[in-house]
Structure to design on (95 residues):
């Protein structure tokens, strides 16, 4: 059984952090001294997610460049198939 990996784009981590902070404030009565650490922790978490997404994009591009250089004709044939992208095509070449 195959699970489809879903990516969540984090375009504006500060906005999302503020929405989560509001939800937390509305849900729980926090002491006021906890607001700033909560804000920092949530914003930091979203920054980490964004950095990891950027790293995945960089690695995906490197894989694509390498597979294009090894078998350009076969690569073009594979990615012409619907739902076959650079990463899946490179996986097929490895088999």
């Amino acid at each position: 059984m195959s699970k489809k990996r879903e990516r969540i784009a984090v375009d504006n981590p500060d906005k999302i952090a503020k929405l989560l902070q509001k939800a937390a404030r509305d849900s729980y009565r926090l002491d006021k001294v906890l607001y700033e650490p909560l804000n920092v922790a949530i914003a930091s978490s979203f920054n980490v997610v964004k950095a990891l997404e950027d790293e995945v994009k960089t690695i995906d591009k490197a894989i694509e460049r390498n597979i294009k250089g090894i078998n350009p004709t076969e690569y073009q044939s594979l990615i012409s198939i619907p739902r076959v992208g650079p990463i899946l095509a490179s996986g097929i070449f490895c088999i």
About this structure: The two ends are 19 Å apart (CA to CA).
